Amino acid sequence: MMRTTAPSGAADVAPGETMPGPQHLQSTAKSHRLEHRPTLDLGPAICADDEASRRHEWLLTNGRGGYACGSIAGVLDRRYHAVLAAAVEPPDTRSVIVAKLDERLPAFWTPDRTRLTDRDPEDDPTSDDLTLSSDVWRDGGLAGFGHRHLIRCRANDGTVEHQWLCGRTRISRRLVMPHGHDATIATYRVEATDRPIRLAVKIVGGNRLADVLAPGASWAASTLEHDDTTLRLRLPENEHGGREIDVAVRISGGRLEPGGDWYRGYRLETETRRGYDDIDDHLVLAEATAELAEGDELRIELAAGDDAAFDFRARDPFTEETTRRQGLVELARTAIDVEPPPIHETLVAAADRFVVDRPTEDGHGKSIIAGYPWFADWGRDTMISIPGICLATGRAAIAREILATFARFVDGGMIPNRFPGLGRPPEYNTADAALLFIEAVGRTWIASGDEDASTANTFLRSLLPTIDEILDAHRAGTRHGIRIDPADGLLDQGEAGLQLTWMDARIDGAVVTPRAGKAVELSALLHSAWRWRARFAAAFGEDETEFTAAADQIHASFDRFWLPDHGYLADVVDGPHGLDGSLRPNQLFATGCVHPPVTGDRAASVLETCDRVLRISTGLRTLDPSDPRYQPRYEGDQATRDAAYHMGTSWPWLLGPFVRTHLRVHRDPDALHEILSGVVDESSRRVLGGIAEVHSGDAPHRAGGCLSQAWSVGESLAALRLLIDHRRGVDSDAFA
Q1: Which of 249, 316, 241, 322 is nearest to 285 (CA)?
Q2: What are the pLDDT digits (tens) for 312-329?
Q3: Calpha distance 178→192 (Å, rounded)
Q4: Is residue 493 within 8 Å of 482, Cβ to Cβ?
Q5: N or C: which end of the chain has fewer CB within 10 A?
Q6: Which candidate, 291, 105, 338, places its Cα nearest to that of 201?
Q7: CB atoms within 10 A of CB 236
Q8: What is the pLDDT of residue 57?
Q9: What is the 3-state secondary structure (H, E, C) of 339-401?
Q10: What is the pLDDT, as a whole number, of residue 125?
Q11: In whole angstroms, what is the distance from residue 65 CA to residue 375 CA?
Q12: Which one, of 334, 532, 290, lies nearest residue 451 by Cα?
């Protein structure tokens, strides 16, 4: 009989101890304030619950675009769930190599071992084996129920730890991805037991693109090397996008045997809900077995591609990653020179997940992955994320590398919207990314100058030709009708069938949120770009008159956006159907960019309206709920989700311009505590230590989209840094 309530238990319990009661269990509904520590250590109330353990997920990344992620329960619910998803073409093309670790304790239930029925809810009470894994199959529901033995899952310093309590035996598993390597290390340890146990772990995976399921796959792996502790395989190119790739499994503390069987018919229920194909098959690559007494460990190393030749057994990747992460946290703390709230450490660690190497023709560049587990690096997302992901964490040097990398790809005054992967050329279909690039350059120049003026100015001089190329191209006109209207200085754009702003969803080629014309945020960013260019000229003793005049023209023309009867800014003017007065958050760019064209009473009115109508605890809705086009929930198949994506769905990253506007209008940092407190809750609500891409506009505001999104984390961190700086008496355009 399937049980959906959690067993009693606690994270730290040794044989002979009394198990705590329900008062010790964590509640999923707990609310935090900014000064509270995020809950990244989950107990059995979540871990052992059939539903909650699958709603909560964990994520590790490796700095190459590779990742590992899964549900707390260990159930394969997404096509992207993997213990090792390797960046076969860094950073944007990933293959699932190891989908899961299938653990069991053979012959655990000996006749003299007492079953504690309230804590050992096995699916098969007649079996002597005890499974630690859980699965959903094509021909049935949830099976295995190993998660019902889970008493703990915690994320800490770039590692994820699970703990199971089975009778009087407590077992832990820790996972880490060595930074810069397509590898995952798993360590199993018997923390406590009343007698030695046997542990068997099947390494279950395959070789497919992360986006592509592989039902019916039938290829075989070739063995390159095998002994009791090492197995190297060559996985063949196949019809599911997998390239020929070498894979290595190395163990310590046990014995290793090759696999070969296919496990067929995994049902991925999140894919079902999202309207996609949902059946997958995986190959057993190997099986590790060990006899373990209390304190003993079994270590399994999984590596792919070039890293398959590298033996990690002489290293301690757990300590290495912990040390690296703690160094990043200390660097970020040093940058502010005060003790920040606990959420700061969580966000700094979350920010590091997105920073990746991007190979270029003349060397290795840097970039920011837009979101895990499926996005590549997008130009728009990267530029918006830089202040939080890099500058707020004391990593201005990384920001400079990223901007230099994207400058190499400027074409026609535009930077790429995205790199589609698989060796395909960049896509230039965005009207805002190049302007956001200039905003990011300016912020990075300021932040770099706080560290070293010479470095900052050298950086800026290197990019001034690129900035001038961008502005000149926008004056002359570039792709997709993107051009500055000389009559009013505002930025016009639009081409049939294309959506060039960040509200870019399309269904069957039709734009969901048409915004052709002069969109409010584009002209706001152009105004800021001209002001930045004037500041750059002044810094180098050059004439700034031309740039100031261009900005002044836009400032005067912004009267055209103002809707006096409503007290906010129109979303688009001079569109195909004239003025679009929809109440949307895009107007916050006009009050929240570094050089806003809208200030004073109008900015206060914009803020009040957006706060009252659009803001929820974790972000801002993309449309007024009273608008008949409003979509209250982000759920269903892709067409249904796309219809809601920018038509009511809330986005956490929009808290960035909202907070900047709020502080300018009210100068009240205390009020920002409540606004940012939702970030603390969100960082433990869906993926441990991350912030989701979107939430439904209506309560209960369920999270959707990517598990953790760069600009969600980045803008939250930048807003927090702004609050901290304000209390320190520091006013910097790097974050203001």
Answers
A1: 249
A2: 888 999 999 999 999 999
A3: 28
A4: yes
A5: N
A6: 105
A7: 13
A8: 97
A9: CCCHHHHHHHHHHHCCEEEEEECCEEEEEECCEECCCCCEHHHHHHHHHHHHHCCCCHHHHHH
A10: 64
A11: 10
A12: 334
- Asked if the bond preceding 106 is cis, omega within 30° of 0, the reply is no
Retrieve residue 655's tokens: 């808290």
Packing angle, helices 655-666 and 669-682, rounded to 10: 160
373 prior amide bond cis, ω within 30? yes
Distance between CA atoms of 666 and 428, rounded to whole angstroms?
A: 39
> Rounded to an integer, what distance in angstroms lies between the CA atom of residue 332 and that of residue 346?
11
Contact predicate 169/194, CB 8 Å: yes
Give the residue among 360, 380, 376 at the shortest CA–CA distance from 589. 380
Report residue 289 as tokens. Answer: 């077995």
| Strand bridging mode 483-484 / 150-156 | unpaired
pTM for the model stands at 0.93
Longest dimension (CA), the chain: 89
Residue 9 has pLDDT above 70, yes or no: no
Exposed (0-12), middle (13-18) or buried (19+): which is 257, by Cβ within 10 Å? middle
Q: How far apart are CA 212 and CA 375, in angstroms?
A: 14
pLDDT at position 109 is 86
**Which pLDDT tens digit goes with each residue over 390-415?**
999 999 999 999 999 999 999 999 99
- Amino acid identity, residue 111? P
Per-residue pLDDT, averaged over 148-156, amounts to 95
